[in-house]
Design goal:
The complex is a heterodimer of chains A (297) and B (458). Helix content of chain A is 73%, strand content 1%. Chain A has twelve helices and two strands, in the order H-E-E-H-H-H-H-H-H-H-H-H-H-H. The radius of gyration of chain A is 24 Å and the shape is globular. In chain B, the strands form two sheets. In chain B, strands 1, 2, 3, 6, 7, 8, 9, 10 and 11 form a nine-stranded mixed beta sheet that branches. Classes of the chains: A mainly alpha (297), B alpha/beta (458).
Chain lengths: 297, 458
C-alpha cells in the first residue's frame, strides 16, 4: 500500500491563501532582521565607494566590552521603560476602575480616553517640546503664575528624563486603561458580590479579589506597553534629541546616531541585534510570569 | 589629508580678507602674509551690481535645460533665507524648476544623511559644510566632483569668473582631488551687543576675556535681560567654543591629530565658557542653539550674544528685532593665548547620484554668480568671491570687525575624520560644565572619547 505524502499537511489551495501573508512577513520582517544580522558581522560606512568588510564578531566584542556609552544607553532605556510602564499601569488601572462605574457623561469620558493615543506621536512630541521651552513654554509660564520655576525641563540632565516619562505617560496611559477596562468588563461579578456579602470594603475587595483576577490582563497590557516603551524613538528624538549631552540617549537614539551621523552601519547592526535580544528576553520573562498567574487562578 | 585641509583653510582666511574691502580705505592684500601663494591685489574699483537680466551673455544659452526639475536640500540659515526670494528669478531665467527644501540644521543633517545612505537619486543639490562632513562624505563618494563643470564652456557662462573665487577657499574645498562644492558663505564669530545697556552701565566694550567677565557681572539682570547668551546645546556649541579655546592658548588637535584641548589652557577655556554661561546665561541655555538665542537677542533679552557674523540681516531687521539702532558689533575678546577668531564655510554641492547634473550645475553657477553674491552680501552673507563688495547698507562697524576677524580666523571645528562623533563628545562635556560639572573631569573624558573616535576612523 502506498502512503500518499502531502506537503506540510496542507492542501495546495490552503498554501495559496497563506502564501501572500508568509511572503509579506518574510520580506518585511525576516529579511531586514537577517540583513541587520549580516551587517553586524561587517564594517561599513554606508557610502558608495567601499564595500562592507567582514569583521566577524569584533563589533559585538567592542560593543559588550569596550563601549561604556552602550551600557549607559541600555541602562537608560530600561529605566525609562520601567518607570513609564509602572506609572502608566497604576494610572491606567485607576482610570479603568473609574470608567467601569456608571456615571453621567461616562460615554464622553470613554471617548476622550482614546484621544491621546490616536494623535501622531511626532506631533505630540513637538507640542510637548514647545510646552517645555524654558522662557516661552506653557508649563513654565503656568508654574510662574504661582511662583514656581522656571525649570529646565529638557535642558537639565536629571529633569529631562522625567519630562520624557511625563510626555510618554500622557500619551500611552489610555492604552493600558483600555485593555484593563476590557479585562474588567469580562470579570465575573460573583466573587465581588461574595466579598461584599462577607463585609469587605472597596479597597480590600480590590486588593484581594479584583486584582488577582485582573493579573493576566495586566501582564498582557504591561508586556505590550513595555515592548513599545523600550523602543520609544520619535518622542525622544523630537523632544530632547538624546540630550542634553547624552542624558536621554536610549538604545534606539544611540543606534540612530551611530548609523546616520557616525556612518558606522556594521556597528549599529550589532547594537540593534543586541537590543533585540534584550527586548525578547524581557518579553519572554513577562510572559512566563503571566503563565504562572494563569495557572494559579 | 586632514592636515593639508587645515593649512589650506588658514590660507583661505587670508585670501578672503581681500573680498569686500574695495569700498573701505584700508584693504589688506593676500600677498601681505608670508607663505601664501596668492599675490593678487584686490579690485579697487567697484561697478554697480548687475541685475539678473544683465547676467545673460549673448551666445550663452541659459535655457539649455529648460523643463528640468531639480531638488535642493538646504539648512535654514542666513544664506538660505537670502536666496529663497531670488529663486523665481532663476526659474524664469533658465526654465528649470527648483524644489528647494529647507529644514532646521539638525533635521537637515539627519534628512540628508538618511537619503544619501539610502543611495537616493532624489537629491540633486545640497548645502554642505566642508569642516563638518567634507572628509566623511568624500570617503563615501557622495559628492560629485565639480572641477570639470566651470571649465566646460558649453554649460558655464563666460561671465561666471571661476578665477575670482579665493584660491585658498577652493583648495580648502578640494579633498582627494574632488571639488566638493562651490563655497557660498563664510562666517566669522561676531560679538553682537546692546550699546545702550553698556552705556547705561558706564562700561566700555570689553576687549579681553577678563574685561568681558567683569562686564557680564555688571550688566546681568536675573529678572530681565541676561548678560550673555552663547550656544550650549551639545554638538552645536562646539563651533562657538573654538574662539574661546584659541584665545586661551589651546587647540583642538596636536600634530598627530589627537586631542590637545585637555591641556590646562583648554580646561580653563571650557571652564570659563561653562561657568559664565551658568551664572549669566538664560535659563535652559544648555539646550539652546542659535535658533533659540537669536530671538532672545532680537527681543532685547540678552546683552551679549556671540555667533555667526552671517546673522547680521536678521539682527538689524526692524521687523524682527527691537531697538536695532542700539545694536553694536564687537571683536571677540582676546585672552591669555592671544587674539583669534574662527570661521565656518558653507558650500553648495552636487550629489554624485543626481540624475540632473547639468541642470544642478546651472543652479550652483547662478547662486554663486557675481550678481547674486553681491545681492546676498547686502544681507551680511559673505560669499567667496573676490570681485564682490559689501554695499553701504551694511553697517561699516560690522564690515570692519568682520574683515579683522577673517585675518585672525582659524577653523571652527577640529580637523579630524569623525567630526560628528567628536562634536557629540565635546558637546556633552560642555553641557555638563554649564550645568555645574567639573571642567577637568568632563574635558578629560571628552578627550578620551575624541581619541577613541579618531583612532577608530583611521
Amino acid at each position: 500500500m502506498t502512503v500518499k505524502k502531502r506537503l506540510f499537511r496542507w492542501e495546495p489551495f490552503e498554501i495559496g491563501f497563506l502564501a501572500p501573508t508568509v511572503v509579506f512577513v518574510a520580506v518585511m520582517m525576516v529579511l531586514p532582521l537577517v540583513y541587520t544580522l549580516w551587517l553586524s558581522l561587517h564594517s561599513w560606512s554606508g557610502g558608495l565607494t567601499a564595500e562592507p568588510l567582514w569583521v566577524g564578531v569584533s563589533n559585538y566584542v567592542d560593543l559588550l566590552l569596550n563601549d561604556a556609552r552602550f551600557r549607559a544607553a541600555l541602562a537608560r532605556t530600561i529605566w525609562f521603560a520601567g518607570v513609564s510602564v509602572v506609572l502608566q499601569t497604576i494610572l491606567g488601572v485607576a482610570y479603568a476602575l473609574l470608567l467601569n462605574r456608571h456615571f453621567l457623561g461616562r460615554g464622553l469620558f470613554r471617548a476622550l480616553l482614546l484621544l491621546p493615543m490616536t494623535a501622531t506621536p511626532v506631533a505630540v512630541a513637538l507640542i510637548w517640546r514647545l510646552m517645555y521651552q524654558p522662557q516661552l513654554g506653557l508649563i513654565n509660564q503656568l508654574l510662574g503664575l504661582v511662583g514656581l520655576g522656571p525649570y529646565e525641563w529638557i535642558s537639565g540632565p536629571s529633569l529631562s528624563m522625567w519630562s520624557l516619562i511625563i510626555a510618554d505617560t500622557w500619551q500611552w496611559t489610555p492604552l493600558i486603561a483600555l485593555i484593563v477596562l476590557a479585562g474588567l468588563s469580562a470579570l465575573p461579578t460573583e466573587p465581588m458580590e461574595a466579598a461584599a456579602v462577607d463585609g469587605a470594603g472597596p479597597i480590600l475587595t480590590f486588593r484581594h479579589v479584583t486584582l488577582p483576577l485582573l493579573r493576566p490582563t495586566l501582564v498582557i497590557a504591561m508586556t505590550l506597553r513595555l515592548i513599545e516603551a523600550l523602543k520609544t524613538f520619535d518622542l525622544i528624538l523630537v523632544v530632547t534629541g538624546g540630550g542634553p549631552g547624552f542624558a536621554t540617549e536610549t538604545m534606539n537614539v544611540y543606534a540612530y546616531r551611530v548609523t546616520f551621523q557616525y556612518q558606522q552601519l556594521g556597528y549599529s547592526g550589532a547594537l540593534l541585534t543586541t537590543f533585540l535580544v534584550v527586548i525578547a528576553a524581557l518579553a519572554a520573562a513577562l510572559l512566563t510570569l503571566r503563565r504562572r498567574y494563569e495557572a494559579a487562578i | 589629508m586632514v592636515k593639508r585641509l587645515g593649512h589650506l583653510l588658514v590660507l583661505l582666511a587670508l585670501v578672503l580678507s581681500a573680498c569686500g574691502g574695495a569700498t573701505e580705505e584700508s584693504t589688506t592684500t593676500a600677498g601681505d602674509s608670508p607663505g601664501t601663494t596668492e599675490v593678487e591685489a584686490p579690485p579697487t574699483t567697484t561697478e554697480p551690481p548687475a541685475t539678473s537680466t544683465e547676467v545673460e551673455e549673448e551666445g550663452f544659452d541659459w535655457r539649455q535645460f529648460e523643463g528640468a526639475e531639480i531638488r535642493v536640500l538646504a539648512t535654514q540659515n542666513p544664506w538660505q533665507a537670502a536666496i529663497e526670494p531670488l529663486l523665481p528669478e532663476f526659474e524664469e531665467l533658465t526654465g528649470i524648476d527648483v524644489n528647494f527644501e529647507s529644514l532646521p540644521e539638525e533635521q537637515f543633517r539627519q534628512r540628508l544623511q538618511v537619503e544619501l545612505t539610502a543611495q537616493s537619486t532624489e537629491v540633486d543639490g545640497f548645502m554642505s559644510a566642508v569642516l563638518q562632513e567634507g572628509i566623511s562624505f568624500t570617503r563615501a563618494g557622495w559628492y560629485e566632483d565639480l572641477t570639470p563643470f566651470p571649465a566646460n564652456p558649453a554649460i558655464t557662462s563666460p561671465d561666471y569668473g571661476f578665477e575670482n573665487f579665493g584660491a585658498g577657499l577652493i583648495e580648502g574645498h578640494t579633498i582627494d582631488g574632488v571639488l566638493i562644492g562651490m563655497p557660498i558663505l563664510t562666517d566669522t564669530e561676531m560679538l553682537y551687543y546692546r550699546k545702550d545697556v553698556l552705556e547705561a552701565a558706564g562700561i566700555e566694550v570689553p576687549t579681553t576675556l577678563e574685561e568681558f567677565e567683569a562686564a557680564l557681572a555688571v550688566v546681568d539682570d536675573p529678572n530681565g535681560a541676561r548678560a550673555w547668551g552663547s550656544r550650549g546645546k551639545g554638538a552645536a556649541a562646539v563651533t562657538q567654543m573654538s574662539t574661546f579655546l584659541y584665545n586661551f592658548g589651546a587647540d583642538w588637535t596636536d600634530d598627530t591629530g589627537h586631542a590637545a584641548f585637555d591641556t590646562p589652557e583648554g580646561v580653563a577655556a571650557f571652564d570659563f565658557y561653562g561657568r559664565n554661561l551658568n551664572a549669566y546665561g538664560p535659563t535652559g541655555v544648555a539646550g539652546m542653539s542659535w535658533e533659540e538665542l537669536m530671538p532672545l537677542f532680537q527681543q532685547g533679552q540678552l546683552v551679549f550674544w556671540n555667533d555667526s557674523s552671517a546673522f547680521l540681516g536678521s539682527v538689524i531687521d526692524p521687523e524682527q528685532a527691537v531697538d536695532v539702532e542700539n545694536i553694536g558689533f564687537a571683536r571677540m575678546p582676546a585672552g591669555p593665548g592671544g587674539e583669534y577668531n574662527s570661521f565656518f564655510p558653507w558650500a553648495l554641492s552636487m550629489s554624485s547620484l543626481s540624475q540632473n547634473k547639468e541642470a544642478t550645475w546651472y543652479f550652483i553657477q547662478w547662486a554663486t554668480s557675481r550678481d547674486v553674491v553681491d545681492r546676498l552680501q547686502a544681507e551680511g552673507v559673505a560669499g567667496a568671491r573676490r570681485d564682490t563688495t559689501f554695499p553701504d547698507t551694511v553697517p561699516s562697524e560690522w564690515v570692519e570687525v568682520f574683515q579683522h576677524n577673517l585675518e585672525i580666523a582659524r577653523p571652527k571645528l577640529p580637523l579630524v575624520v569623525p567630526v560628528a562623533e567628536v562634536r557629540d563628545a565635546i558637546g556633552a562635556a560642555m553641557v555638563s560644565i554649564i550645568g555645574g560639572g567639573d571642567a577637568e573631569t568632563e574635558v578629560t573624558r571628552a578627550a578620551e572619547s575624541f581619541n577613541r573616535a579618531v583612532d577608530a576612523a583611521g
